[in-house]
Write a structure and sequence with these properties.
2 copies of one chain form a homodimer. The first copy, chain A, is mostly helical. Chain A has one domain: Winged helix-like DNA-binding domain superfamily/Winged helix DNA-binding domain (Arc Repressor Mutant, subunit A, Orthogonal Bundle), CATH 1.10.10. Chain A has 9 helices and 3 strands. The radius of gyration of chain A is 20 Å and the shape is globular. The N and C termini of chain A lie far apart (about 50 Å). Chains A and B meet through α2, α4, α7, α8 and α9 of A and α1, α3, α6, α7 and α8 of B. The structure holds a DNA duplex.
DNA sequence: CAAGATACGTCAATATGGCTGTCCCATCTT
DNA sequence: AAGATGGGACAGCCATATTGACGTATCTTG
């Protein structure tokens, strides 16, 4: 795998160090951010999978099971376990769909809202510090690159989440 | 409350939606990027944990076990299993440290290098496309924000990885 | 040199969060 | 009435992580 020291104008090769930098920063950044909520989750005996469900239910009240499945991209069985546990702890409640009574609309209880908000504080603290240190210009770039990592078929779903943000 | 060191308009309390957007984009971007290598890993019966080890050994040949443990932030036992499996498949080899013979210096075999390079193609394809779509300015911002997510005590480690990038 | 610290390995037990496959029920659609 | 869809549930499996304790080789230091 000998690499010439003066590379030709192959854009793919030229980007290697930039790509490695991105891979590494994404790895460390993502894992550190998720670690920031572990303590709060542990207090309730919950894990990150529970947080992901909580988060997206908080984000889109009256989400259905199948919508949540598409967002999380896990199996019905895996999600079932998580939702059962969240229900048992009184953090999530469901009601039958209005239009389609087979559906279950997911919502956070008051307790669930409070807990999600508590976890969100940790996320906000970390991200806000990073945003502040980097500056608004950088934040825009940060978003743009991440958007480019999301495959076309998923982009509508992500955009929908952010649709009704004020 | 006198906080002399922060500017008056310090956006510590960013608008919530900016933080949620970052959380979501990081989640989707990171998970989609990691999924891009699953197929390649599956062909060898390996998982993402194996890739992380492979990746960092590729990045820093002659890495020691304890350095790798610090990077991955997992336990010795977890890493032990991963390295055993990589060794059995002839992807990673070790030799005793030169200065300190208790150490094991980790290296990829030729096979290991080829495999890591193959996986890297998928990462590069995804990230390079995102970089190209976003533009160089954005890439810089992307890096800056992610750097800000890494706690001070880990930053030296990450910087060391990128020290000898050409 | 003896004592202790360090680098690494290993055992056993456990938790978490995924997966597949199969079958079921209620409800909506045609 | 038949079929499609939303959701639940069973059984079993796998990957990846954890803790705690103990062992061995090697380096460092009083």
């Amino acid at each position: 795998m000998a690499v010439p020291s003066s590379p030709p104008a192959s854009p793919l090769f030229l980007r290697e160090h930039e790509v490695r930098r991105g891979v590494e920063l994404l790895f460390f950044g993502y894992t550190r951010l998720t670690r920031s909520i572990d303590e709060g989750l542990n207090e309730h005996g919950l894990g990150r999978a529970h947080h992901r469900a909580l988060y997206f239910i908080a984000r889109q009240p009256d989400l259905t099971i199948s919508e949540l499945l598409r967002i999380l991209a896990i199996t019905k069985q895996s999600l079932g376990r998580v939702l059962t546990e969240l229900g048992e702890r009184g953090l999530v409640e469901t009601r039958p769909g209005v239009i389609d009574r087979r559906q279950k609309l997911l919502r956070l209880t008051e307790q669930g809202k409070a807990f999600e908000a508590q976890l969100f504080v940790a996320l906000r603290t970390s991200l806000a510090a990073a945003y502040a240190a980097a500056g608004q210009e950088s934040v825009t770039g940060f978003w743009r690159v991440l958007e480019g990592l999301i495959p076309d078929e998923d982009r509508a779903m992500v955009a929908a989440l952010q649709k009704d943000m004020r």
